[in-house]
Amino acid sequence: MKIEDLARICHEANRAYCQSLNDLSQPLWNDAPLWQRDSAINGVKFHLKNPDSSPAVSHENWLKEKCEAGWVYGEKKDPLKKTHPCILPYEKLPIEQRLKDSLFISIVECFKNEVSKEAKL
Question: 89 near 64, Cβ under 8 Å?
């Protein structure tokens, strides 16, 4: 398994979870823009290198990536304006959003031994 394969699994699980919240904004992996796929890949790499990171640290890593790319807080996610409602400290996120970090970490943990050793480097 490659890191991208694991990132795809994480993305699709997040998409399904979002749908359960009536958020239909998440595209299929193959339809997702490169920045979104890269974000999932970066998240997987982060957790493979930092397996004991908490959901709060996971969110901080994601937040840092977004802010460095020019994203800011906005009530609605808008990739063109680079606004996102989760550009907040972890503690201020609604529980539904915090669960995304826990889900992501759990998936990486489940599949970490399936990722090829070469891919982890």
Answer: no
φ, ψ (nearest 5 deg) of residue 72: -135, 170
Cβ-based neighbour number of residue 10 at 10 Å: 24
Domain boundaries, the chain: 3-59+94-120
pLDDT band at 116 (very low <50, low <70, confident <90, very high): confident
Strands 72-73 and 83-84, bridge-based pairing: parallel
Across 54-66, average pLDDT: 97
105 contacts 113 by C-beta, under 8 angstroms: no
The distance from CA 1 to its chain's CA centroid, rounded to whole angstroms, is: 19
Name the nearest CA neighbour of 101 among 72, 74, 49, 63: 63
HSE value, Cβ hemisphere, 13 Å, CA-based, for 10: 31
Residue 85 has pLDDT above 90, yes or no: yes
What torsion do the CA atoms of 52, 55, 89, 67 make, to the nearest 10 degrees? 70
pTM: 0.92
For residue 121, pLDDT over 70 is answered with: no
